Amino acid sequence: MYIEIFPSPDSFFYLPMKTVQTLLSRLRMKQLQLLIALDEHKSLHKAAVVLSITQSAASKALHELETMLDAALFERSASGMIPNQFGRRVIEYARLLTTDLTQLCHDITDIKAGRGGRLAIGAIMGAIPAHVVPALDALHAELPDVTIEIVEDTSARMLTQLDEGRLDLVIGRSAVSAHPDRYRYVKLAEEPLSVVVGYRDAARSHRKIRMRDLAHCRWVTYPAKMPLRELLERELDLAGIDMPVNTVSTASTFVTVALLNQGRDLVSLLPTDIAEMFARHKMLRILPVEMRSPSQTFGVVTRLGSVLSPMAERLIELLKNGAGK
């Protein structure tokens, strides 16, 4: 079995899997540093001095690396040691690895000091306008070098990503998990809901609406067994209406808004903060429908026993303190 160790279109040699395993188990950063020093100084003696090792140790390290790769990497000439085609490619990757490791060390230092690093958070859509955005603005003002990734999805799917270590924290609901005791949950706020239609659908929005008045409408809903879907089913049941069979199911806010603006007799249930944001931009209208079910709550969810970075802890503090309010 053969694999390409340098995955680029112009790679020039292939190594058997056995060689790759050997590299992974025996390759040392000192050998890569030696290649870089040899490329810069063209002399084994000078490279050894730069690395504070003996010339014999440098020669041995180079021989071990060439044996692992089964290829000579340098040519001896009057100008000194000159890398051949193999050597140039290995040196190229040695520099890349050295640069990446240097950056890693800087990142670790910054994270320990609470100055930088990367933060990956998940958030349900209803938490984004009034809670996530102000908190992130405040965090960036304090820590401008932090890189932030935001995932907007259902709580259930985001908890899976939290379990896998792909998210540092989730602003959502831990109760949707089959094992909510695996998480720490800090309540942030309630999530009131509103019934919405496309902005062009103006006629219905100026008079009082009851849920039963929407019996003929098609609903854009969240997927089955999600809290928003279950609440809609409960509201329709309280109004004596069966859940329509011709619903459109999506977890995407963008898809919901697009459908409402293009379709006729389409309605949906959205978190009020989201609905008001789109209403201000004349993309949705909020119908005056009074919801009979109590509002659900959401909060900050983290893995029980996990150690959070200083920036994650600071974001949670900003969320709890209602940054920007």
Describe the secondary-structure layout.
Layout (H helix, E strand, L loop, with lengths): L1 E2 L11 E2 H10 L2 H13 L2 H7 L4 H15 L4 E4 L2 E4 L1 H29 L2 E8 L4 H15 L2 E8 L2 H9 L5 E4 L10 E9 L1 E6 L19 E4 L5 H12 L9 E2 L3 H10 L3 E6 H9 L3 E4 L8 E8 L6 H11 L5
Parallel strand pairs: 5-6, 5-7, 10-11, 10-12
Antiparallel strand pairs: 1-2, 3-4, 7-14, 8-14, 9-12, 9-13
Helix pairs in contact: 2-3, 2-4, 2-5, 3-4, 6-11
Pfam families: HTH_1, LysR_substrate
Protein name: LysR family transcriptional regulator
GO molecular function: DNA binding; DNA-binding transcription factor activity
Nutshell version of this structure?
With 325 residues, the chain is an alpha/beta fold. 43% of the residues lie in helices and 22% in strands. It has helices at residues 17-26, 29-41, 44-50, 55-69, 85-113, 128-142, 155-163, 227-238, 253-262, 272-280, 310-320; strands at residues 2-3, 15-16, 74-77, 80-83, 116-123, 145-152, 169-172, 183-191, 193-198, 218-221, 248-249, 266-271, 284-287, 296-303.
Helix content: 40-55%
CATH superfamily of the largest domain: Winged helix-like DNA-binding domain superfamily/Winged helix DNA-binding domain
Number of domains: 3
The helix-and-strand class reads alpha/beta
What string, H for helix and E for strand, traces the elements in order? Answer: EEHHHHEEHEHEHEEEEHEHEHEEH
Strand order of the largest sheet: 6-5-7-14-8
Radius of gyration: 29 Å
Task: Tell me, rounded to a whole number, the average pLDDT.
Answer: 85
By CATH, the topology of the largest domain is Arc Repressor Mutant, subunit A
Describe the global form.
elongated
* CATH-defined architecture of the largest domain: Orthogonal Bundle
Poorly predicted segments: 1-13
Give the N-terminus to C-terminus distance in angstroms: 61 Å
Sheet-strand content, in percent, reads 15-25%
Number of continuous helical runs: 11
GO molecular function, one term: DNA-binding transcription factor activity
GO cellular component, one term: cytosol
Organism: Caballeronia telluris
Protein name: LysR family transcriptional regulator
